[in-house]
Amino acid sequence: MNRYDGAKTVSILGVLGNLFLFFIKIVVGIASNSQAMIADAANSATDIFASLMSFIGNRIASEPGDNSHNFGHGKAEYIFSLFISLSMVFLSAKLLYDAIINLISQSVFTFSWFLVVVCIITILVKLSLYVHAKVILKNNYNILISATMQDHRNDCIITSSTLISILFSFIQIYWLDSIVGIGISIWIFYTGIKLFIESYNILMDVSIDSQTQSLIMDIINNYPDIKKLDNISSTPVGYQYMVVVTICLDGNMSTFDSHNLADLLENDITKLDKIYKTIVHVNPV
Predict the structure, then answer these.
(1) Distance between CA 226 and CA 258 in Å, rounded?
(2) How confident is the prediction for the chain on average, in pLDDT?
C-alpha cells in the first residue's frame, strides 16, 4: 500500500468512526447535561471535518505532475492540514468559553452509566484507529496520516479524562466536569497550533532539516574531484524537497566528465528518502 492509498484508508475509517462516536456522545451528553461529554462530542465533530479534509487533501496531493504543476500537487497535504489546524483552534476557543461559563454558574449534570459506557466505547474505537494509522504511517510518512494518528491518540487521553470526571460526579463532585472541559479545549488548541506550525513552515518553503543536509554533505565528500561546495539550497515539494547544489570542479576537466559527475551526484542525493529531485550546478576553478 503506497502513502496515498494508506492516507485514503485512514481518512475513510476516521470519518466513519467519528460519525458513530459523535452521535452517541452528543445524545448522551445533552441528555445528561455533561459539559465534558458535550466537549468530547464537539471534538468528534472536528475529527469528522479533519478526516474529510484529509481525504480531499490526499486525493489532490496524489495527482502527478502536469503542465500546470510540474512538481506535482504534494503541497495540497499541507494546505488541507492548515485548514484542519485552524478549525481546531476556533473550536477550542468556543469550548473553553462554554466550560468557563458552566464552572462559574456551577452547572450540574445527571450521572448516568451510559456516560461511562460511551467513554469506554470511544477509547476502544479511538485506540483501534490509532494503531491502524500508526502501522500505515510506519511504512509511508504523510502529514495527514500523522495528524490523524496524533488526533486519535489525543482523543484516547481526552476521553479518559472525561471518564474520570463522570465517575467523580457519582459522588456529587460536579466542578471537575467543567475543569475537564477546560482541559480538553486547551489540549485541542495546543494540537491545532502544533499542526499549524508544521503546515505553515512547509507552505513558506522552509529549508531541509539539518540531518538530511548532513547526509547530502557526506555524499558530496565522497567525490574527491569536487574542489569546493559553493551552496546547498532547497524548497519543499509536498512531503519531499527539491535540492539545488552548486559545486566547483577543475576548470580543465572536460565538459563530458563534469556533466557525468554532476549526473552521478544528482542520482546519489535523490536516493535519500526526503529528496524529490536534485539539480547540480557546476562552476569551474
Answers:
(1) 10
(2) 83
Kindly state whether residues 235 and 110 are assigned to the same domain: no
Whether 33 and 132 map to the same domain: the answer is yes
Q: What is the CATH number of the domain that holds 99?
A: 1.20.1510.10
Examine the pLDDT at 2 and tell me if it is beyond 70.
no
- Summarize pLDDT for 261-281 with one digit per residue, the tens: 999 999 999 999 889 899 999
Same domain for 217 and 119: no
Angstrom distances, CA of residue 24 to CA of 29, 30, 94, 119? 8, 10, 21, 10
Residues 6+ apart with CB under 8 A from 106: 174, 175
3-state secondary structure of 244: strand
**What are the tens digits of pLDDT across the range 218-242?**
999 999 999 999 989 998 887 788 9
The grid coordinates of residue 220 equal 558530496
Same structural domain for residues 246 and 164? no
131-169 tens-digit pLDDT:
988 888 887 777 778 778 877 887 787 777 778 777 777
Q: How many domains, in total, are found in the chain?
A: 2
In terms of domains, do 124 and 219 share one? no
Q: Are residues 171 and 266 in the same domain?
A: no
* CA dihedral of residues 32, 33, 36, 38 (deg, nearest 10): 100
CA distance 122 to 251: 67
Cβ pair 180, 165 in contact under 8 A: yes
Rg (CA), the chain: 25
Same domain, 153 and 219: no
Contact 31, 112 (CB under 8 A): yes
User: Domain of 63?
Assistant: 3-203
Question: 0.70 cut: is pTM over it?
Answer: no
Residues of the chain with pLDDT > 90, as a percent, come to: 24
